[in-house]
Amino acid sequence: MIRVLLADDQLLVRAGFKALLDAQPDIEVVAEAADGQQALAAVREHRPDIVLMDIRMPVVDGLVATRRITEDPRLREVKVVMLTTFELDEYVFEAIRSGASGFLVKDTEPEELLRAVRAVVAGDALLSPGVTRRLIAEFAARSKEPAAAGVLSALTEREREVMALVGIGLSNEEIARRLVVSPLTAKTHVSRTMVKLGARDRAQLVVLAYESGLVRPGWLG
């Protein structure tokens, strides 16, 4: 079972998401929270697989709560997906830097929400390719000058190539086609790269690809 925690200050939003998620045979909502402080307490108590976290909440906002979750080594396996009203909310990009695994717009189609939850927990695609590429494009436009590329020294040439393809928003299947390898081989390369760089998930791998200078704005295809 995929164990989900819902954190949103709007009761109706939580109720709608809960009804949809609990209706699935492989998903269970284990807790709810109306603010970031409650969300932190619930995450520590229930250790869910994924948190659907609203960005703007009272007491402690979702951005701060996300940072505290992702910085806690005891919660390393918990994935956080931000909920936002607008696709290009300015706080989303800081959330990605803070370790969030991606974001969902609150009016996302039900099928997309379910696919996203399963994908993030599985460690596969960040979210849908369209949303991913918009996120990457905006992140690239807002990112600072590339940091030193020394962080990439532990990677093989093939792993750098794979990381660059992740950085431009390709899924494992698309990477496999580009490199003429099997999807399993592509996924293995991505996983090894994440382990070597200490990345929690593909979202952080995208951030590192830009911050190291491996991928630069304008390379999106």
Summarize the entry for a quick read.
The protein is an alpha/beta fold. Helices cover 50% and strands 13% of the residues.
From the 3D structure, determine the CATH topology of the largest domain.
Rossmann fold
C-alpha Rg, in Å? 17 Å
Spatial order of strands in the largest sheet: 2-1-3-4-5
Instruction: Provide the CATH architecture of the largest domain.
Output: 3-Layer(aba) Sandwich
| SSE order, one letter for each helix or strand | EHEHEHEHEHHHHHH
Task: Please tell me about this protein's structure.
There is one protein chain. With 221 residues, this protein is of the alpha/beta class. The chain has 2 domains: 2-128, 3-Layer(aba) Sandwich (Rossmann fold), CATH 3.40.50.2300; 143-212, Winged helix-like DNA-binding domain superfamily/Winged helix DNA-binding domain (Arc Repressor Mutant, subunit A, Orthogonal Bundle). Helix content is 50%, strand content 13%. The chain has 10 helices and 5 strands, in the order βαβαβαβαβαααααα. It has helices at 11-22, 36-46, 62-70, 90-97, 110-122, 129-142, 157-167, 172-179, 183-197, 202-211; strands spanning 2-7, 27-33, 50-54, 79-84, 102-105. A 5-stranded parallel beta sheet has the order 2-1-3-4-5, with helices on both faces. Helix 1 links the parallel strand 1 (2-7) and strand 2. The chain starts with a strand and ends in a 10-residue tail after the last helix. Pfam families: GerE, Response_reg. The modification 4-aspartylphosphate is found at residue 54. This is DNA-binding response regulator.
